[in-house]
Structure formats: structure tokens, C-alpha cells
Amino acid sequence: MSAAPVGARIEWRVAKVLEVVPETPRTRTLLFDVPGWPGHRAGQHVDVRLTAEDGYQTERSYSIASAPKDPKLALTVERLDDGEVSPYLTDELHPGDVLELRGPIGGYFVWEITTGGPLFLVGGGSGIVPLMAMIRHRHSSLAAENGEARKKLRTRLLYSSRGWDEVIYRDELAALAGKDPTLEVIHTLTRSAPPDWKGFRRRIDRAMLAETAWPADESPRVFVCGPTPLVESVAGTMVDLGHPPALVKTERFGPTGSPT
Amino acid sequence: MSKASKQSMDQTVTSGRSLDSLRLDGNAAAGMLSEIFAPDLTAGEAKCAGCGKTRTIGTLHVYAHGMGMVVRCPGCDGVILRVARTPTRFWIDARGAISIAIAPES
After folding, report:
1. Residue B72 contacts residue B79 (beta carbons within 8 Å)
2. Which residues in chain A are contacts of B23 at CB distance < 8 A?
3. Domains of chain A, first to last
């Protein structure tokens, strides 16, 4: 489904906060009502604009976390201590408050049911957000489908977090994977892990990708989102492993953030 | 509208990181480009004048922390596109692109 009618320009809209949901100690999900919202595709983002009392304006981009069919637009924001915008979004914003946003933006890092599968998603830290929109989109679109349709769109998520408490959407991912054998969620923890942790305990590397990715001859659609070093290393390795560059799509953010 | 010239100069994707974000990708350019072009450019392709390679615009390197936005080729590091906004105009320098191919909005 097209996100916007032909010729429609992306314009600033006033969005009202309906709900604030804590995800991890450093992240919150903001649920918005956006009158006139034209709909979006999984993987797209919005620009958020804040205006101070003196007229100073600043803008940031945030990936959309909700599926296209979800009734509320969801953004999940990680608090950056030295950030200009994120502390406001995670600490100051309450239900009933409004801000300006425009979107949906971006037509490259997008996955739809019609794009097909299998799907291999690789996320680092808050890079999970657009991938979660894809997982939610897949889940809601397949609700009435049989095992065969699910198998065609079989999905693996490889998700790198610093610690178990920092895994965004942890319970929702476990619940979705628990009732859908065609969705596998594989965690790796890079800094700390619970004592009984049996999963991966290192940064994503070639051996981990070779072990977890669908084989190249299954032509998986690969989406990688996270800090720039993770994205560049994962994308390069996937191509080394024989995946065509055109099927490996990337979205990166700041290169100097702490490694996840 | 002079305040508006500050907009879009430090776009980042997903995490809201700003000044410490140096290299981003074409996705980060999408917001500003959408103010200029109706169809989405990030799914389109640009042919680099430096190395002649054609790439999806979403995969290009974007540096958006300065006064304007610089889009570079990940292969040869050549500047493909520069976009700046002044209070009254957008300035686009596309001499680093031999061609840009964009699908009409579907």
C-alpha cells in the first residue's frame, strides 16, 4: 500500500502524545495521535521538530516503531545524556502534550509483506526500532494466514544489546516468537549478562552471522540498523558471505555512540 | 523565517544523535530532500561522476552536521550532492552526479 497519495507533500503536523510507555531504563515509547496522518510503511521514519519559547527550533529523525495497521503512531526514543532533544522526549513529554512531526520519510529502508522473504534482521541497541515495525507488520498481516504463508516469510532477528535490561521490546519479542515458530529471535549481549545466560556474549561477528543468517542461496532480505560501525561491519560481512548487496539494506546512526 | 534555516542541518536517524554523528546514510537526507522533491529520492539511484558507479541514494554517505548536507559516494568518497538552505532558498550542487534516476510516486 502506498504511504501517501500521488503528489502529496510531506508536511508538518501537530501530534498529540496519548501514552508514554517505559521500555528500558534509557528508552521510552511515545504513542501519538496524528490527525491527517497518511499512513506509513514499515522501516520509515519521521522528523520531529521542537520549538523553544525564544523561537529556536531543532529537528531530529526517529524511526517509526508501530506497524502500518496500528491505530497509534509509535516512536521509541533512547535517552542520550548529552542530547538536545531526546532527554526532552523521554523525560519531559507527557500524555496530552503536543509536538510537530512530519513524515513518513524514506523509501529505501522499507519492508512490506509484498517484498517477500525470508527476512534476516540485524539490530544494535535502538536500531531495533524500524526492525520492530517490520516484525509487527509481518505479525499483523499474517494473523489470518496459514503455516505456508508464514514459512515463506520466515524471519530471524539477530539483536545486539549491552545487557539484558537494555533489550528493547524484550517481552513482546519473546511473546511473538513464542507463538510463531517462523519467527526466531536471537540475542547477543555485549557487556553484561545474567548468570544463567546461554546465548551469545559478544559483538556481532562473522561467525555469528554465518551461524544465524539464512543461507545466501535462499535470497533473504537483509535489514541492518544500528550504530555506524555495527552496520558497516555487518553489511560488509553479509556481502562476503555471498549475499547480493542489493538485498542488504542498511540504516545507520551516529558513529561515536558507545558500542552496543 | 530565519530560524527555519537551522532545520534539517543535523538530521540523524533512529537515535537522535546530533553533533557527534558524522557519517550517516542516505536515509538521513530524506527529510530535507522531501522539502525539495515530491517523489522519495532515497529509493532512487545516482551515478557518481567520480567513479561512474550507480548506487541507491539511500546507501550513500551523508554528512549533515555542518551548514549544509554533503552526500558522498561510499566507493570513491567523491561528493555527489550538496544541499544547503538559506532563509530564502535551497541551493543544490549536483555536479558530482552524472545522473539521478527517480521513480515517480506510486
Report:
1. yes
2. 228, 252, 255
3. 12-105 (2.40.30.10), 113-253 (3.40.50.80)
